[in-house]
Backbone:
């Protein structure tokens, strides 16, 4: 059944008939499995993966992404959960992870400019009780995101060699 999940992860538009053809699982069984996963909350939603650089090139719209590492003073009985959930509710925040290492949380944040993200950190994130430090890392170029390879292979400009 994980075959179905991998196909949907790569292409959310894959129909049960297409998945059936790829896996050999009957289409009706695929349909029932997908419906069960949706009902159980295993499949949370279907989404588009956006190439921010191409968006800017074609439309002029800018989308800046930053990784923000957050140090949090844990609370007895709560740990980091309450702060992580509070951060997750901000519309600028795309993801929040509890991580190992020097910081406690890693957030993925988007905005229309570096200034927007800086304002988010200064006005919203750093003012949350028990947030003790932040470190912001702006994405300069995306090579791969959400299993999607963005970088294209460079054209081989070498001259052919013949014997």
Residues:
């Amino acid at each position: 059944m994980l075959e179905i999940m991998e196909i949907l992860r790569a292409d959310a538009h894959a129909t049960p008939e297409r998945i059936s053809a790829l896996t050999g699982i009957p289409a009706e069984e695929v349909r029932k499995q997908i419906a069960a996963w949706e009902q159980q909350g295993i499949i949370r939603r279907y989404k588009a993966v956006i190439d921010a650089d191409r968006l800017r090139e074609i439309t002029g719209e800018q989308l800046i992404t930053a990784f923000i590492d957050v140090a949090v003073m844990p609370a007895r009985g709560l740990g980091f959960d309450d702060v992580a959930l509070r951060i997750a509710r901000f519309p600028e925040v795309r993801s929040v992870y509890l991580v190992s290492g020097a910081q406690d949380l890693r957030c993925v944040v988007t905005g229309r400019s570096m200034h927007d993200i800086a304002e988010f950190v200064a006005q919203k994130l750093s003012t949350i009780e028990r947030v003790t430090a932040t470190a912001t890392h702006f994405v300069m170029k995306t090579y791969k995101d959400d299993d999607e390879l963005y970088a294209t292979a460079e054209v081989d400009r070498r001259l052919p060699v013949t014997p």
Q: What stands out?
A: Residues 2-40 form one domain. The beta strands are 64-72, 93-98, 105-111, 131-138, 144-145, 148-149. The chain has two domains: 2-40, 52-142.
